[in-house]
Each structure stands twice: as structure tokens, then as C-alpha cells.
């Protein structure tokens, strides 16, 4: 008897009405203008008394690498552009009337190994260049006076990626004022209980942070508004918030005849979350919402709102040529519109969390998204220094901080982005299983299994990391994802499918992405009948697409790439890759 397993997801998610709605609390104020910058490591730059008058004036977002000179002495992997150590400084005045409120600094992304100071006091460090993060600056704020923000960015290990990363504070920065009792960061999360074309029941989790020394009795209200501004669902609930603690409540909103979000009609609602203390509003946030449901089936593929759909996807890196990594939203909108006009309906974020603005646009335009966390885990991959696959590689990367920060970075990606209707899956890794880069397995010796009669990828390297570790780590990372979002499947892009099939790596996934291995689709579909398979990275040949169209169990593919990108370059003077559908 044939076993049929359907992986089903019914989803309602949020995306920001405004650029700062990702913050989900308080009163955010963008502070991108009038920073001072120096590309040099200097002593004492975190002090308000330091003289920075000779520093450069810059506005954020700012990528110092793209402004530098190209040199064949730098790494081809990152586009022959420099890294280094830089400092940023900005003075802000905090009004006296804000005394008693909480003051936060929120960074959408700093590449990389950053440390943030306020009035000479270190607020903390964040090594990942793709993570968004916030620090509470309240204890060190001087109200009614100027306060110095200083940020040290250490990208001295500039060959730390297989593609161009950029350097510096290359995404937006926000100053956030909040009452002592407020919605927690990324603290509003909506997910489906049931959704059909006629009715939807949406669960909304609201997390409250009580930063005061007294408990609070609160009233939480969630209102769902149609595009015309009509309230279509409302729920109110009392909540007790103990002093110095975070507390969470759950509410349900019932919607009749929901206008479903789809690729053709990305219908939106507005979700307004309000927190009252007595009769006083102490916090509120409004975000746009989309309601949809979808299924994955190992035999019939993908269906959105009950309609079968093949994903015609592309992979995208986060740079934009001469703009580097600090890409204006308008540029991304133009690019995505062109891709959609070409027939693209899905994006894979290669190979890291992208700017929040990209997800906002995909929500608005009707593009499905795979949000990806990592290109490597506990061990580094080769980073080519003299041209792709040429010379002696380097081995710098997130290996320096993956053990300490990997799970936190993954959790923060999910919590930040889980309220985007465009995202249909979380990817925990790209080509982590690339044979002998670094993991290895005896199957690479060519045992005859899976048709390999000769050694492949150089054969088994007994001194390389054991590929059996892949399953252990993948299960751990998948559990992190599911802790913060149970509504979406977990995926990864497999490069060494034959090797990974010998491990428990694919078993940790809900969707198995195959990179450039169309020949494995049919045999693996027969061997693993409950596995949902798709092309997570493919070449531009028609045969690769035929493998999707002629096999109903393959739900789509993602071309490498949608747009040319910097880095992963050939020999000098090449500075990027030209494999995209669109030129830079």
C-alpha cells in the first residue's frame, strides 16, 4: 500500500506597513543622517571627548568596501575589494521629557564583528554581519544632553565569505523610545489555526516586556482591518505583567470570507495591536497582514490556496553592483518587478538573511521567498583568493563564532522575519554538505552505491570532518526554527545529495533542496517516497526545467542566479559573477 504524506501549512503572517514596523514596539526614529566615519582603528573613539572633526561625514546605510579601490592583492571571493576596521560616531540629544522611558538602539545589519557604545559604555557586540539586533541604552543615557553613539566594525578578516559582503553599517539604524512596559522586540506573531476560502481563525501571540519595578495590569487589543479600513475582527484580553519579566498572551481573530494573499493578488489587511494601562495607551503597533494556506505533497508538489503551482524561482545575493551592500529599497523594487515580468514567482535569499525591505517588497508584489540563514556551520568552506577554483584558498568565516552565536542568529532571523507573508520556508544552510569542503564520507570512494564506481570529489578524506555530524547539527537547528515558527517547513540546499543520503541530514528537513542534481530526482523519489524534493539551485538549461515540468513531485526550481553579483569572481580583473538572468 502506497503511503502518502502531505506537509501542510496554513498561514497568516504580517509585514510592515512602514519600514520600522519590524521593530514592533515603541516610537522608532530613523537616525541614518550625519554620522562621522574613519576607516582606521583608533584608541578612545568611544569617548565623547574624542575629537572626530577630521573624520569623514557619511549618511547611512554605508558600505565602505564598495567605495574602495580594487586590487589583485585582495580576495577574488569578495570581489577584490577591501575590508578593514572602521569607526562610526553620532551625537544625539535625548529630551528631558523622555526621562523615565526606555531608550533602545536598533541595527538592521552591521558587517561585521561590531561593538556598540553609548557615552563610552559598551552595550555589547554582534559578530554576525547579517543579524538585526537591539541594545538597551537606558542606564547610560543623559537626558536633556547630547549622547555619543560609537560603533566599531571589524572586517579585517575580509576574505570571510564566498561572495561580496560589504563592510560597515550597511543597513538602517533606529533610535526607539518606549514606555517601561511595552511590546517586546519582535513580540507580535500571528499564525493560523484554520484557514479556508470561506473562514479563517488566526492566533496572535503578543509578548509584553515589563522593564519596571512594579507589576502592571494591562489590556491588549488586536484589531484586523480590511483594505477599506473596516474592522473585520477584534479581540480584547486582560493581562498581568509581573515586574521585570516578559509575559505572553494569545488571542484569536475570526475572519469571514478572507481575501487570500496570492502571487496574482497579494491582498493585505492591517493588524493593529494596542496595549493599555488603565485607560492610557502605552504602546501600539500596526502592520499589514496577508492570509493564505498552502500544502506540500511528495507526489503532487506544491499548492497555494488549493491551486497547484510550480515555483519558477531565482537565487539572489544581497548586493547591487556599484551600490555594494547598501541597496535602496527603490532599486530592489525595480529589480523584483523586472524578475516578476520575466515570469519569476519565487526568491531564494542566498545565502543569508537579507534587508527587511526586500521581504516587504516581496510581500507587496506577490513573490514567494525562502529565507536562508547560513552558508557554513561549524567548519569553514574554501574562500578563493586568486580566482574561483584557482590557487590556494583561504578558510576564514563564521567558524569563529558559529558555536557561540549560530543558534541565536538563526532564532533572531526567524523571529524578525516570521511575520512576512512572502516567506514560505526557512533554510538552515546552503551546500553545507559539499563533499570534502569540508565534510567527507566513505561513499565518496566510489563503492558502487548510487552508481558511483569511481571516487568522486577526490574520494574519501579520512582526516576531514565526518559527514555524519550533518544530521546532528541539522536536527538541532531545525528545532530552533520550530521553536519560534511551527507554521513553515524547514529546508536546506543539498550539494552532496549522495553523501547526505548516508546521513540523517535530509531527515531533519521538511523540504529537501537539491543543488544541480536533477539526475537524483527520480531515483530518490522512489527510494524516499515521503521526501518532498525541489531544485534549490539550478543551471539555466532547458533540461533542468524539464525535470520540474515533467515530474509532478518536483514543486519548482531556483535558478543560479536571478541577477549578476559581486564576488565569487574569476581571475583578476573580474570582480563578480555573470550567471544572472539580469546584468548588474
TrEMBL record:
Xref: InterPro entries: Beta-gal/glucu_dom_sf, Galactose-bd-like_sf, GH, GH2_Domain-Containing, Glyco_hydro_2, Glyco_hydro_2_AS, Glyco_hydro_2_cat, Glyco_hydro_2_N
Domain Glycoside hydrolase family 2 catalytic: 301-492
Keywords associated with the record: Glycosidase, Hydrolase
Domain spans labelled Glycoside hydrolase family 2 immunoglobulin-like beta-sandwich: 181-292
EC number: 3.2.1.23
Gene Ontology BP annotations: carbohydrate metabolic process
Name assigned to this protein: Beta-galactosidase BoGH2A
Source organism (scientific name): termite gut metagenome
